[in-house]
Write a sequence for this structure.
């Protein structure tokens, strides 16, 4: 049985299948459609400029951000176990950057064809369920498509969005003022994570209420970290982590403090687009990022 369509995947076909699999209403986002728009501030660290000359990361700025999860748009709450997202916009004008991160360090497909096949295999049939034989055959032939689910099963997310760690997944070329370029991976790590994770498990009130009460208590802050590359790191495959990624050298670029909730219309009016990067952070070279450059604009058109 052929496991992948022959080069049929395009950013547009993937956006359409994302929508179809989730069975979304017309104005919903194709992915991570449950969410809460928030605002805050970004303060750079002294070390940020050693990694990038991007003014998004080396200057203080206001932040517009959105916590999200796979799920039903406008539902009171999301399924606490599903993949979560955190998107944020730093800087302004030509110095604006948009970083989209998720609660797993890997994506579920290495190529766009694989992503399309992964989604198509999960399309519900007439009985409301996917064809399990087709799904199992696809997974067996493409084991890397299971790595994200394995990660989430082994690392269940904490009860709070504010205690979750988020990853940018791709390898981004970062250039500093001396003209030195190296690859980095973004990791957005909650400040005070250990204390809060222990506390929040006992008091879970739902993702949204928890977020609102923590924002009111000024208790939602994240370190924006750059994980630094080593020679030979794989930079073309978003289904694998770098060797010893959790243990390697990292530089704190700055801190995001979430100061208030915004009406969701503020985030819905535009799109967080990973292609939006100020000079100093370049586009990752892998095939999945190339598709994302178009997919977000297409999705925005679809939900107008
Ligand atoms: C490393 C892989 C990826 C990550 C970390 C990621 C992350 C995210 C996040 C966090 C959002 C929510 C944005 C928001 O809050 O408004 C999002 C939305 C979306 N993603 Fe991705 N994504 C990835 C890969 C892809 C790929 C490969 C495609 C398609 C080719 C895609 C298509 C979309 C679309 C269409 C939306 C909805 C955009 C909108 O209408 O606002 N994503 N993604």
């Amino acid at each position: 049985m052929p496991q992948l369509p022959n080069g049929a995947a395009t950013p547009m076909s993937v956006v359409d299948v994302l929508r179809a699999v989730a069975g979304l209403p017309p104005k919903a986002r194709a992915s991570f459609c449950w969410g809460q728009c928030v605002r805050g501030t970004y303060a750079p660290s002294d070390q940020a400029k050693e990694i990038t000359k991007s003014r998004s990361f080396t200057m203080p700025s206001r932040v517009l951000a959105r916590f999200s999860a796979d799920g039903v748009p406008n539902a009171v709450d999301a399924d606490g176990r599903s993949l979560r997202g955190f998107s944020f916009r730093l800087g302004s004008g030509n110095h604006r950057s948009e970083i989209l991160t998720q609660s797993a360090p890997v994506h579920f497909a290495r190529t766009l064809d694989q992503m399309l096949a992964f989604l198509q295999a999960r399309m519900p049939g007439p009985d409301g369920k996917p064809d399990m034989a087709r799904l199992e055959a696809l997974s067996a032939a493409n084991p890397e498509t299971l790595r994200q689910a394995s990660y989430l099963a082994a690392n269940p997310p904490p009860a709070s969005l504010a205690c979750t760690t988020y990853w940018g997944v791709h390898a981004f070329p970062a250039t500093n003022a001396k003209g030195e370029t190296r690859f980095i991976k973004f990791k957005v790590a909650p400040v005070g994570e250990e204390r809060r994770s222990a506390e929040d498990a006992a008091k879970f009130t739902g993702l949204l209420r928890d977020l609102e009460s923590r924002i009111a208590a000024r208790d939602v802050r994240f370190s924006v970290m750059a994980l630094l590359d080593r020679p030979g790191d794989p930079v073309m495959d978003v289904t694998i982590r770098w060797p010893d990624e959790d243990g390697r050298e990292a530089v704190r670029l700055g801190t995001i403090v979430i100061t208030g909730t915004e009406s969701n219309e503020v985030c819905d009016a535009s799109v967080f687009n990973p292609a939006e990067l100020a000079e100093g952070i370049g586009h990752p070279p892998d095939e999945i990022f190339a598709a994302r450059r178009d997919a977000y604009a297409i999705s925005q058109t679809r939900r107008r």
Summary: The first helix runs from residue 11 to 22. The CA atoms of residues 38 and 261 lie 4 Å apart. Residues 11, 14-15, 18, 29-32, 35, 66, 68, 85, 87, 100-102, 107, 115, 169-170, 238, 271-272, 288, 291-292, 295-296, 299-300, 303 surround protoporphyrin IX containing FE (CB under 6 Å).
